[in-house]
Amino acid sequence: MAINDGLTTTCTNIQSSGGIQTVFIREWNFKQSDGSTAPDMIATLGTGTITSIADNGGTNSTWGVYETKIETPVLSVTGASVGNANTYECSLTFNLPQLDLARRNSITDLQGKCLQVMMLDTNGTYFVIGISGTLTGGDGGLDLAVASHIGTRPQTFARLSAVEGGTGAAFSDETGLNVTLTCTQYELPRTYVAAGAAVSINAAGLVATVS
Asked: In this predicted model, which residue has the larger pLDDT, 1 or 40?
């Protein structure tokens, strides 16, 4: 992208709110009920956007919806440039209140998995980590094409990196788990902008369908 224009800062920009409303998580190239796996199909449009996330041969993908304690989820991005390589360490931390069996098992299921993570912020923007170019803009124009690494060999996947929590001691103490998901990317987190139907969450609020 050529640097031939600048940016304005408006009242809307200044008054935008912080925070994340909802966290969505799914596994890369999820194994189907018949035991088969196939690469996910990721469609992008220009720099910084994703327009479609679908199972191979399908038109959409299924995500787990994680309701968190209000005003606890935070996405942090730390970038560094060494030579021609730009690296971004992305970290999402969120709190699951109450240390019950369902929450413990849900987090256990994330262990050792290659993950895609999407977050809806309070301004209506969907941020995605765990899906990105391998060395976008990083090696003098010799980048791998997106089709070469997104789907069959995702090397920028997110993973479960830390879990901290406990029961507390006093009745007024908080109980639950603080969960951290991290990934190393070579571009800033992309924004999901649906080309078709919007994100649909089922009546129970636990499963989302993304086209």
From this structure: 40
178 Cβ partners below 8 Å, 6+ apart? 72, 93, 94, 95, 162, 163, 164, 165
Q: What percent of the chain is modeled with pLDDT above 90?
A: 38
What does the DSSP assignment read for the chain?
Answer: ----------HHHHTPPP-EEEEEEEETTPPPTTS-----EEEE-STTEEEEEE-TTSS-EEEEEE---TT--EEEEEEEEETTEEEEEEEEEEEEES--HHHHHHHHTTTT--EEEEEEETTS-EEEES---SSTTTSTT-PPPHHHHSSSS-SS-BEEEEEEEE--SSTTS--EEEEEEEEEESSPPEEE--SSS--EE-TTSSEEEE-
Nearest Cα to Cα of residue 167 among 97, 111, 108, 103: 97
What's the rounded Cα separation, in Å, for the pair 28 and 43?
15
pTM equals 0.85
Q: Are strands 200-201 and 190-192 parallel, antiparallel or unpaired?
A: unpaired
The CA distance from 59 to 210, in Å, is 9
Output the pLDDT for position 31: 62
Asked whether the beta carbons of 179 and 160 are under 8 A apart, the reply is yes
